[in-house]
Give the backbone structure.
Amino acid sequence: VLVVSPNNPTGSYLNGEELQRIARLCGERRWALVADEVFADYPLDAEHPLTDIAARSDVLSFTLAGLSKSVGLPQLKLGWCIAGGPAPERDAALAALELIADSYLSVGTPVQVAARSLLEAGASIRTAIQERIRRNLTALRAVAGRYPACDVLRTEGGWSAVLRVPATRSEEQLALDLLRTERILVHPGYFFDFPREAYVVVSLLPPHHVFEDASARLLQFVNA
Ligand SMILES: Cc1ncc(COP(=O)(O)O)c(C=O)c1O
């Protein structure tokens, strides 16, 4: 079972009860649990999110993370996993993973050696990203609050926000029109299998002045 926590783009973290239910299912069927937690360092509305799922789980589990999000360095291509669960199964899985990693996708030595320093030095980048996404989310909520037909969904964590907008045209058409007319790039909700239209997904990463200006124009456009 693969879970993404916090999920991209909805931002929801797996909670304790969900983890118990999934772990029970995995235990009954002898499945492994893989938790992609690359955005776990970036809580927004979640107060005490559950993280390091593999370390808490009593079935064979893996938590995935990496420099790409933790330190904002996707180019360095360093990811890692925490392995958890009963020792015999965990150790057998780690031996198999070691063979796969060595044979097919060996990690670069320089980045392995630098990992500790990068993680330490990256704390300031993490803080800067966190501050920016929080500030941008607040700005988006403020502007969306002026339009009763729009809502910013609860965003427990991550780098994106989901905006519910009037379904006056298809999400696809809306995304294309926004790009052509306003030069604003959003992802249509259907990319992520939302059950109905219309939602758009926006990145919270742009510099604040760019984001604030785009949010105002986006809300105006979808409500025109
Ligand atoms: C949920 C999620 N997991 C994993 C990745 C991949 O990250 P990486 O750059 O470490 O390959 C992404 C990339 O955006 C992501 O959104």
Remarks:
- Residues 4, 8, 36, 38, 66, 68, 74, 79 surround pyridoxal-5'-phosphate (CB under 6 Å).
- Residues 123-144 form the longest helix (22 residues).
